[in-house]
Write a structure and sequence with these properties.
alpha+beta; Creatine Amidinohydrolase, Chain A, domain 1; Creatine Amidinohydrolase; 3 domains; six-stranded mixed β-sheet; 19 helices
Length: about 600
């Protein structure tokens, strides 16, 4: 199993840990301390030994921050984690602050003038520190970097044992074949070096693991569910790149692949090489939004670096022909596994004996049966009834519940295959759904179809399309608190920038980008609804009868949408036609790949709704 179901830190444990941290603050002359959910690479997914926020507070969401002050403490989350935060946190100990509230504003309002706030400079980015320092200085509050993480000091031996159990200890670097990458690492490095020269920069320091994996055509298993290597890199405009990675991870194949294109160093040598860059007087580029504050300080501070974006982020977002071919193959394979699961679910769920964990393990088994699964792309969200209303719910041995008749079951999952990354959500009726469930599901479906069928001119941003998915819900006074779509990598992170379809989606959509299309609706304490497919931005062409070229989307995900939850009369003729066409495609492409029993189920699940 790639997923475990261990219970998180119980809320009762937090009180003693926070008290111990406050004692440590007093000894260090600090009035507060910031605990982000981050590691040195600022990735969304982190090794178990970097789960400091979860260890201290009990909150296990994949995004969030905490501040512990001498008298008060708060945890900061976005709307995806509203219900989860309430369930996991001791609210007598922590205030829960949702976006748009943030930790800097909270500290400015809560702490007295003259207070000193400590932070680990490896765990906050350059931009985060600068914003916080500016806001706090206006209130007479100082921000102080602290050497040695204070939570680690309290976690102690148990953290070391956790660190020894991290997958990173045993994971070797694996060269990613050019046939799947579509470009050699040499070619990618040359393109980056040209960009540096064109911009007048002598070098760039790379800290983001998926950028490094893409650039050097390597994959690893240092972080659960994301095939990256924990590494740093310095790419010189006119010299061989330097890659800082644990030598134990570079086996013969990795060395043969990397030695011709990079100088390999152990991570401990990074400080020395940054000092050398500082002393050279060269123009060194750094992404202030992703690089740890420690790195800029080591390079000599703001005046000594050139702040700029990481060019690789945009380069890897636009998939080439080989990557697109690979992702289509991965989705076809994954679709067959998901259809086998949905057929099994329909057979087993009415018994009332099936629970959320059994659903997760069975779906993972079907993906294993492909003989191509490398990992799951994130912890499967398997939410029955009220658990489905928790947007990023992670089932544990304690929270596990049965799938019961008259409820909805939401399952959001994905696979990591060498040729592509998948992410799919389906909401399934267990027994007979209520009229309200069906109506709200249909509103979500209308939004999903609106995104899928959108045509738009070059230059369109995700923020421009996001209302398409919400219009039907808005007309009924309903909405959801997450983005409509995120970018997806090619056997890399399931959440990849810069593109998104959301209220924050300012990046222009480009041909070859992959995004999710996942509007939803969540009724706290009752049920959740989400319908998610992955989509590929297609090249512009002129629609029949038009005079301007428009881009659109190709649907990659192939699995039925539960017709039992659709109120046919709420769909327009065009929307009904879309659903029938989609289901006909699913039936045609998936049927040859599944067993006869699943094929019978698939024929019924994809029957015409018109």
């Amino acid at each position: 199993m790639f997923q475990n179901f261990e219970n998180p830190t119980p809320p009762t444990a937090a009180a003693g840990r926070v008290a111990a941290l406050r004692q440590l603050l007093a000894r260090r002359g600090l009035d507060a301390y910031i605990i982000p959910r981050a590691d040195e690479h600022q990735g969304e997914y982190v090794p178990a030994s970097a789960e400091r926020l979860a260890w201290l507070t009990g909150f296990t969401g994949s995004a969030g921050n905490a501040v512990v002050a001498t008298k008060r403490a708060a945890v900061f989350v976005d709307g995806r984690y509203r219900v989860q935060a309430r369930n996991q946190l001791d609210q007598s100990l922590f205030e829960i602050v949702e976006l748009p509230g943030n930790l800097t504003e909270w500290m400015a309002e809560t702490l007295p003038s003259g207070a000193v706030v400590g932070f680990d400079p490896w765990l906050l980015t350059v931009a985060q520190v600068e914003r916080a320092r500016t806001t706090l200085a206006a209130k007479g509050i100082r921000l102080r970097p602290v050497s040695g993480n204070l939570v680690d000091k309290l976690w102690g031996k148990a953290r070391l044992e956790t660190s020894m159990g991290d997958v990173s200890r045993a994971a070797e670097i694996v060269p990613h074949p050019t046939s799947l990458a579509g470009r050699t690492a040499d070619d990618k490095i040359a393109a980056l070096q040209k960009r540096l020269k064109d911009d007048g920069h002598d070098a760039i320091v790379l800290t983001t693991t998926d950028s490094i994996a893409w650039l050097f055509n390597i994959r690893g298993a240092d972080v659960l569910h994301t095939p990256v290597v924990l590494a740093f890199a310095i790419v010189h405009a006119s010299a061989k790149p330097e890659l800082f990675v644990d030598p134990a991870k570079a086996g013969a194949a990795a060395k043969a692949h990397l030695t011709p294109i990079a100088r390999l160093h152990p991570p401990a040598k990074l400080a020395e090489r940054l000092d050398a860059l500082k002393q050279s007087g060269k123009r060194v580029r750094l992404n202030a939004g992703a690089a740890a504050s420690w790195i800029e300080r080591k390079l000599g501070g703001k005046k000594r670096v050139v702040r700029g974006s990481d060019p690789i982020v945009a380069m890897k977002a636009i998939k080439n022909a080989a990557e697109i071919k690979g992702t289509r193959s991965a989705h076809l394979r994954d679709g067959a596994a998901v259809c086998r699961f949905l057929a099994w679910l329909d057979r087993e769920a009415p018994s009332g004996k099936l629970d959320e964990i059994q659903a997760v393990t069975r779906l993972e088994a079907f993906r294993h049966d492909t003989n191509a699964l490398k990992e799951i792309s994130f912890d499967t969200i398997s939410g029955s009834g009220p658990n489905g209303a928790i947007v990023h719910y992670r089932v544990t041995e304690t929270s596990n519940r049965k799938l019961q008749k008259g409820e909805l079951f939401l399952i959001d999952s994905g696979g990591q295959y060498q040729d592509g990354t998948t992410d799919i959500t389906r909401t399934v009726a267990i027994g007979k759904p209520t009229r309200e469930m069906r109506e709200r599901f249909t509103l979500v479906l209308k939004g999903h179809i609106a995104i899928d069928t959108a045509r738009f001119p070059k230059g369109t941003r995700g923020i421009d399309l996001d209302p398409f998915a919400r219009r039907a819900l808005w007309s009924h006074g309903l909405d959801y608190d997450h983005g409509t779509g995120h970018g997806v990598g090619s056997f890399l992170s399931v959440h990849e920038g810069p593109q998104s379809i959301s209220r924050a989606g300012m990046e222009r959509l480009e041909t070859g980008m992959i995004l999710s299309n996942e509007p939803g609706y969540y009724k706290d304490g009752a049920y959740g609804i989400r319908i998610e497919n992955l989509i590929l931005v297609t090249p512009p062409d002129v629609p029949e009868g038009g005079d301007r070229a428009m881009m659109g989307f190709e649907t990659l995900t192939l699995a039925p949408i539960d017709r039992r939850l659709v109120v046919k009369d709420m769909l327009s003729p065009d929307e009904r036609q879309w659903l029938d066409r989609y289901h006909a495609r699913v039936r045609a492409e998936i049927s040859p790949l599944v067993d006869p029993e699943t094929r019978v189920w698939l024929d019924a699940a994809t029957a015409s709704i018109s």
